[in-house]
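Morning. Coffee machine broken again, so started the prediction first thing and wrote up yesterday's gels while waiting. Chain of 264 residues, entered below exactly as on the submission form.
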Amino acid sequence: MHVSAFDRYQHQHSRVHRLDPRAKVLMTLFFILSNALLPDGAWAAFLAAWGLALLAGSVAQLPPGYLFKRSFIALPFALAAVTVLFTVPGAAVLTFPLFSRTIAISDAGLARFASIVIRSWLSVQGAIWLTATTQFPDLMHALRHLRVPRLLIAIISFMYRYLFVLADEATRLLRAREARSAAPVSGKSGGSILWRAKVAGGMVGQLFLRSLERSERVYNAMLARGYRGQLLTMNPHVMMKRDWQELGTAVILIALVQVIGRLF
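Came back before lunch.
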């Protein structure tokens, strides 16, 4: 299985990549918190925050449009806030009948919904920037240095690694099915939808059993290699003067975004 299926780390030699992972985690957390604290309709602040995200991507030497394209994954989840269009009081900007009632979209509700979508979109860009510039083991060690509970770090680490194991097992099952199947030269292969559902259900059950057995073997192998509840690394992760300077600069820029949100 190719590693790029889940791991989107972009190997570069930029200033951002050389930063201590703790500094990058704190930058991202401050950026997301700043977006959450911006008032509704702070369009100038949202634009400044987006400019800050573009600047961070440029300094990290990420491909043009990398953050912009991948951040759209947040939009479907932001649609969960669509109800604010109709529940926030304000002047009606659009009305339409629904059954025996008239539904109105208020200007305040529209501003809040757009602000929620933009906040989510910007925050996802910050998270993508973090994962694109920080390798996963370094990210886990940064969380450990920041006093995140070890149990939570272990759960995240195993969940990430077993994504590859599950995908590998699923690929083997699909390959075995194709090796034991034949398709006619003309016409459709396979049976009805119910038959296909039964086959898919059997494959899911097999995937569960095989992954469970595989996890036992992997855990025993880890214990044999010295695993004692936490991952080891040769990187000392020492915060240097340059790391503190970069973190301080990022905090100042994020604070300026907050000032813009309060003034404009």
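Residues 34 and 197 are 46 Å apart (CA to CA). Going to sketch it on the whiteboard this afternoon.
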